[in-house]
Design brief:
The protein is mainly alpha-helical. Helix content is 52%, strand content 6%.
Length: 143
């Protein structure tokens, strides 16, 4: 089986409501900051050990944009307008009326073999969201 590379656009495309992901910007890895900080602690940490922990910012770990910041529904609606088949377009718009629309929308795209097309269509938008987020939070990417 061929392994496909996961991009930052793919990660942002899949951020759901009430989900919180963190990016280590010098390595571009998705990390759990609490687990990551554990490696700086001895096996039986004391209160003093916890006080000496580096900050997640000093380790270049930042919370990725939230679901509300990303506004998935806008790009999904825009893509849906570009679908020529009226029935598929109608079905996609119907999924966007749901409260938890993301998984339903992606399932519908996969059902109609449009997921890869959507992914290609939306990647510029999600990369733009990432660049704006970096600028607004004064985050430098890379070493």
């Amino acid at each position: 089986m061929e392994k496909t590379e996961c991009t930052i656009a793919d990660v942002l495309m899949d951020i759901h409501d009430n989900q919180c992901l963190f990016l280590k910007t010098d390595t571009m890895e998705i990390v759990n900051p609490f687990d990551y900080l554990k490696k700086y602690l001895p096996k039986k940490p004391t209160e003093e050990d916890y006080k000496k922990l580096p900050t997640i910012e000093s380790l270049n770990i930042y919370q990725l944009p939230s679901y509300k910041f990303i506004e998935h529904k806008n790009i999904m609606s825009e893509f849906t307008h570009s679908i020529f088949d009226k029935e598929i377009r109608k079905e996609l718009f119907y999924t966007l009326r749901n409260y938890n629309y993301m998984d339903k929308f992606y399932d519908c795209l996969k059902k109609h073999k449009l997921y890869d097309e959507y992914r290609d269509y939306a990647k510029d938008y999600y990369n733009f969201v990432f660049r704006i987020w970096c600028e607004e939070n004064n985050i430098k990417i890379g070493k």
